[in-house]
User: Fold this.
Amino acid sequence: MASTTHSFERLDDHRMVVNLGPSHPATHGTLRIILELEGEYVLRATPEIGYLHRGVEKLGENLSYAQFVPLTDRLNYCSSLMNNVGYAQAVEKLLDLRIPPRAELIRVLVSELARIGDHIICIGANAVDLGAYSAFLYLFKERETLYDLFDLAAGQRMHTSFTRIGGLFRDLPEPFMPLLRQFQESMPRAIDEMERLLTRNPIWVDRTKGVGGISAEQAISWGYTGPCLRAAGVPQDLRKAQPYLGYDSYDFDIPVGTTGDVYDRYVVRTEERRQGLRIVDQCARRLEEVGGPVLVEDYKVALPPKDKVYTRMESLIHHFKLVMHGIEMPVGEVYSATEAANGELGFYLVSDGAKSPYRIHVRPPCFPIFSSFSRLVEGRLVADVISVLGSLNIIAGELDR
Amino acid sequence: MIIGRIEEAKPGLVLDHHAFRGDSTAVALPERLLELAAFLFEEGFQQLLDVTAVDWYERDPRFDVVYHFLNLTTQDRLRVKIRLREGQAAPSLTGRFHSADWSEREVFDLFGIPFTGHPNLERLLMWRDFPGHPLRKDFPLDGGDAFCTGDTGTSYAGRPCSMEL
Assistant:
C-alpha cells in the first residue's frame, strides 16, 4: 500500500514498521494498522480499512426496503438488534409512520439488551487483550444468556433481523419473560464481580488511565459520538437529546467522564450497562400493561397475517403487491439517527418513489472515531495501541460496510 | 431557523432550501461552501457528522455532495448540499472539521469526486488501483472489471468484460 512504501523510504537504523493486522488477535475484526516505531514508541499509526467492505450501500440500492433489514444485521454484528431498529426507524420516518406502542416498547427493550451485550464484548475483549482473562469469562457467561434471549425473540442469536417496516416480525414468545427475569437478577451481580476485578485493579488502572485521552473539543471535531464522546465530558446522548421510541418516558441517567481516556471509556460503558438494566426493568414492567399488535395493520406497508392471506382475496392481493412491487414510497430524503452502542448510527435514505431506495447511506459510529486513531496513540508505547484499540470498540463490519 | 439566520446574515449564500419530515436542507454553491461552513461553525454547528454523495447520473450537474451538521447545544440538524458536475472538485472541510478527513476520502473513493485542499486524498475502502467508482450509478452491481475472470472473459453475472485480461 502507498503508506507502507512511503514509510519504508524514510526508514533509517532506528525506525521499524510493524503491521498490526489485518489478521491479529487484538484487532477483533479485519482491520490493519501500520505502525511506525522508534524502539517501543509509536511515531505514526496509519489505519488501513476496507478489508470487510461488502458494498452494503450499493446492494441496498438494488434491494427493496424490506430486503435491506438482513444486511443491517451485518453492520455492527455485536448489536444487530440496534441496527435493525435504526434502519426500520429511518424507513418509518420516510413513510411518516407511527408504530404500535407495544412494538416501540419491545424495540426499546431489545435495544437496551443489545447495548448491554455490546458493552460486554467491548470491555471483555479490551480486558482480555490486556491480560485480564477472568473479567472476560464472568461477562461472557451473561452474554450467553443475552444471546439466548435474542434467540427466543428473533429466532437467531447473531443475525436477528427482528424488525419489520412498521413494527416487529413477531411478539415475544412465552419463555422470554422468565429468562429475562433471570438475566435481570444475574447481570447486576456480574457487573459487580467485573468491577471488583477491574475498577481498582492496579494493573488495569496503570494500563488504561491517561492512555488515549482526548479533549471534548477535539472529540467533537473528530465526529465522536456515543460512549467515547461522553467519556470526554460531553453529555450527548440521542436518547435524551433527541428522544425517539418514547425514550423520554424512561428514567435513566447519562454517565460522563472527564479525560476521555481508556479508563473513562471503561467507566462510562460500565455505568451505561447499569442504566441499560434500569431501562430493561421499566420495559419489563410496562410489557405486562401494554398489549396490542406489534406490527402496523396497514397492509400497504406490512404483510398481512398468513391466515388472512390464505383465506381472503384482498389480503392475498396486498401480500402479492408488497412482495412484488414493494411499499409505495414518497419521494424525498431523510436522515434518521439512533443512539447505538457505539454512538450515533445514522441512515440517510434518498427515495425517488421506486421499490428500492435511490441511495442508502449508513453513518457508522466507529468510522469517524477510528479516523482519529493515529492522534490517540502517537508518542505512546506499542502496548497502549492495543489498549486504545480495544476501548474504541471498532467493529469492522460497520466500519467498512 | 438556522436557514433564516443564514439568509439574514449572508444573503445569497443559500440558493435553495426545503424541509421534509422535519429535516431541513440548504443548497449552496460549491465556491461558497467554506464560507457557509465557517458561518455554521460560528452558529454552533460544530459537529460534521457525515459527508456523502448522491449520483443523479441523468441530471446536470451530476452529483450532490451531502453534509450533515449537528448543533450540540440546540440539537438542531442541518443538511447542506452542493451540486457538482462530473470531474468538478468540492472544497475540503478538513481545515475546520477533522471528521471530514475520512468521509471525504470515502466519497472520493466511491464516487470519484475530488476535494481540493484535502491533506491525503487517497482511496479509503477500495484498493489503490481499483478501476472505477463503485457507488456511481453506471458502475455494475457485480463489481465491474476488477472481478472478471480470465478464463471466460465475463463477470460472474455473465456480463462481458471491457478490460483487457
